[in-house]
Structure formats: C-alpha cells, structure tokens
C-alpha cells in the first residue's frame, strides 16, 4: 500500500501518522497566562532534542478553528513552560486535561491536580509527577496554518525534578520503576510496566473525554 499525503485530509493523515509513529512519549505541559492563570495539557508529539544544550521539543497543533492552543499562546507570551512526565498512575488525570476547556480556565483546579512550585520559572508543575523539566522557550516555529496546523516548540531545560523514590542510593535513576505510558493510535496507549510488575506492560484503552468547556 502506498499513501500520498496530498490525497488525504488533515484528519486522515493525522490518523495514519499517529498509528505508525508509536509509541509516543507524552509531554504533560504546564504553562501560565500573563494574567497568572495556570494551564495543563498533554501532547504526544514530544521528544528530546539534545543534551548540549539540554533541549526538548513538542508540537501543539492548532485548534479546529485554526487558532493556537492555550499552551502555545501562553508560551509565546511568557517564554516559559514545564514538561511533566506521565506514569500509569497519572493516566486518567492526564487524559482529563485534554478536554477542550475555555482559555483562562485552570485544569489543575478543575481536575483537582496538585501543583508544586518550579524553582527557575513562574509556572507550576504537577506535584506528583514522576519527573518534571523546567524550560525556557528556545524556539517556537509555525510550520502549518489553519485547523490542525503544526507548530514546533523547542525548550531549553533549566532544571529537572525527579521523584525521590525513583533515585537509587548511587544517586542514579531507577528506570525500571518509571512505569511510563506512551500514546499509540486512536484511543490506545501502552504501559511500560515495572521490573516487579512486568505483566502490566501492555496496551490499554483511554477514550478522550467528551465534556466541553465549562
């Protein structure tokens, strides 16, 4: 089978790409508006860029009306954001924050997600996340326009927070206990499991929330 991207709608092409590019780690991105209102939303087009300088990237697509998502709008105005990593324990909370709330609504408060202060940026992070990275904006690039238009955000990592119970006595990360999740196609996710609970490394279904803005 051959697929010509020029012959597909944006939605059809999105489905093909997200079902083929798997598994995708999830950036649970927290930002704050110029008015001081926090925002929290997940993005699965996410990865590291490099360690010199320490940089990460994620790609927030435009909303269905062609306007930037709140996350991108906040970053463009403040130049700051935090990326919180998602474990299986946080899967439901992460998914809940993907609901289309209005600009200016705080997903931390609506979904009862505890905040913690960052050290070098004026953005809250997810208090119970297995790890969070404080970032300053390096580059925000518009790649596409209109509904679903692609945007690339590159952030410079200023500080990393790792939950203490994941640190070995040697001060190294015990990666076997992360139990992170990754996005597959449609509503499917994959759980990495842990060294002690390897049978839980499996696919699971997590439908997107249907609720609309409050």
UniProtKB/TrEMBL annotation:
Taking every annotated instance into account, which residue ranges of this chain make up the domain Flavin reductase like? 20-167
Q: List, separated by semicolons, the cofactors it needs.
A: FMN
Superkingdom assignment: Bacteria
* GO function terms (MF aspect): FMN binding; oxidoreductase activity, acting on the CH-NH group of donors, NAD or NADP as acceptor
Give the keywords, sorted: Flavoprotein, FMN
Q: Which SMART domains match?
A: Flavin_Reduct (SM00903)
PANTHER family associated with the record: FLAVIN REDUCTASE LIKE DOMAIN-CONTAINING PROTEIN, FLAVOPROTEIN OXYGENASE
Q: What protein family does this chain belong to?
A: Belongs to the flavoredoxin family.
Protein name per its UniProtKB record? Flavin reductase like domain protein
Species, as recorded = Stieleria marina
Q: What is the lineage of its organism?
A: Bacteria, Pseudomonadati, Planctomycetota, Planctomycetia, Pirellulales
